[in-house]
Amino acid sequence: MTHKIFISYKYSDNMVDQGLDSKYWAEDTNEATGRGYVNYLEELIGKEHIYKGESDNEPLEGKTDEQIWAYLKPKVHDSSVTLIAISPGMKDIYESEAGQWIPQEVRYSLWEVERGDKTSATNALIGVILPDTNGSYRYIWGESNCAHCQHIRMFKKDSLFNILHKNVFNKKNDDGNRCQGALCYSTIYDGDHSYLHLVNLNEFILNPNTHIEKVLEIKDKVAEYEVEKTI
Question: Measured between alpha carbons, how far is 105 from 109 in angstroms, rounded to an integer?
Fold first, then answer.
């Protein structure tokens, strides 16, 4: 079964692994960027069912919510999945999040919008984490020094926009379990603990459909999550 997917990404982010085959690079660059990886993802998923956010060079300054929504509406209203290509430089820490396209795109894709006699549902969310220039995902995942939980991924939220990291570990009535290490204060979560499903690129490419079906299953249980829809 095919699903319409909206991809949100940072077009010009070159803080990514440069090992990407040059055939995927954007035509206006001589290096791998976020857009190059989206070209690769399109090939994996099937580009006929994909809508892309391509507003990298268009500033948001001075635009009203209505103007932003009018621009995004044709791209997000008919999609059921929002895929965020997470890259190391996608977040500009010197600019407000409201002034950046990715959080705006995610925000609107989570809205329930009436269209005639129908209301579009909140999109499923999947974050495909792109490798950094060292081929690593450690800007998102850390490691514990505790012998009890050292093999469990430790989530780092600082590289993500608020609307993304607030949709991680947001299942209602799920406070996780405290690690049993005597001096460890980590909380361990199991199962579908997050509305935003995070997956490394190398894991995603093994079977994209498995991960897409997973987020749609989570979407069907959206009432079980405190979904963050604001910036």
Answer: 6
Q: Residue 226's closest CA among 198, 188, 195, 202?
A: 195
Q: Which of 52, 16, 60 is nearest to 34 (CA)?
A: 16
**C-alpha span between 176 and 183 (Å, rounded):** 17
| Dist. CA 157–CA 135, nearest whole Å | 19
Residue 211 sits at φ, ψ, to 5 deg, of: -75, -35
pTM of the model: 0.91
pLDDT for 101-125, tens place per residue? 899 999 999 988 765 566 678 999 9
pLDDT digits (tens, 9 = 90+) for 60-95: 767 788 888 887 877 787 899 999 999 999 999 999
3 state DSSP class of 178: strand
CB 127 within 8 A of CB 195: no
